[in-house]
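hey m, so remember when u said the tokens were messed up on ur end? i reran from scratch. heres the input so u can diff it against urs
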Amino acid sequence: MKWFKTVVTGLGLATASAFSTLKASPFSGVRSCRASSLNMATTVAPKIAKEADVVTLNRFMIEATRKNPEKYAELESMMSSIQFACKTIANLVTRSGIQSLTGLQGEVNVQGEEQKKLDVISNDVLKAALRYTGKMGVIASEEEEQPVLVEESSGGKYVATFDPLDGSSNIDASISTGTIFGIFEEKQECIVDETMGNLSEAEMACLMQTLQPGEGLVAAGYCMYSSSTIMMLTFGDGLNGFTLDPQIGEFVLTHPNVQIPNRGKIYSLNEANEFDWDEGLQKYIKALKKGDNQTKTKYSARYIGSMVGDVHRTLLYGGIFGYPGDKKNPNGKLRLLYEAAPMSFILEQAGGKSTTGTKRIMDISPKGVHERCPVFLGSPDDIDELLTYL
């Protein structure tokens, strides 16, 4: 019994007490276990119920549709497909090093950029997800040379524009990447040959007419794949953020009614191009560095090289993000349809502003799928100050 007492002492007084109770009466021991389980249930149940009482993206869309079915009924099914695609891409990004999905595809896209393996896969994932919504007619993607028909039938009335994997040049280094998307409503229906072969000039002209300025967006958002997967989403009535909970596999509302600060203390531009910028922009950045700006506050430089990551930080902390035109690229490098316009819509819905330096980005009518434009977006007061230099 000496060794037994030593073990019991090591396990602690609670264990010893439980053993004594069980030894005295096996039935009382059972009752104690039941009581303990009941106590645990009453303690844990409210916690589980509280965790279950979260607003998932699906629940958010159902509630929005209930309140305004005319606006949201068709968008609900599209968002179901988009969030499924984002979950799939998030998983691919997380496992890219394990599944040998890093590195180059060995091909060059229409932009003249070498495609990463995940560029191609992400594009296919989004196309496949959107194809089965029953609502999508046309898509315009960074990886597609021209607008392409998604629905085999002529029933789709929406146009999707997207950058399937923004910042993919950073993927091999496990730096944050993202998916940017915008949804327009078609102004006219395009009937295209189901064989999807070579399109006639009339068919291509019709597809091109589906492309609209940012003012025509009915929804826009981005998914950021980083330490967590976050989706920022707007339907033109504010901006909300959802974080993917890996335990339940659902996007959960974590950032309701996002508002960008009126001012920030961070600027985000690729300063390697500084000497090719316009003189006014160079003076503005120097003023931010020295604290000679309107607020007399020195700004910090933060630049990831992934638009989604840089814009997400700007949304939360304030400040300014920019990819301006320069001597080498007068129109900058960001594409209007599936990068600049959706991001501008997102920023404006959060109380921010966006501009090319001379005009509001949302007002620009695209002349082609891959048209580029200079981009500045961020806190309203920071953008206003920038414009005084330009």
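this time it looks ok to me. The radius of gyration is 27 Å. if urs says something different then somethings off w ur setup not the seq
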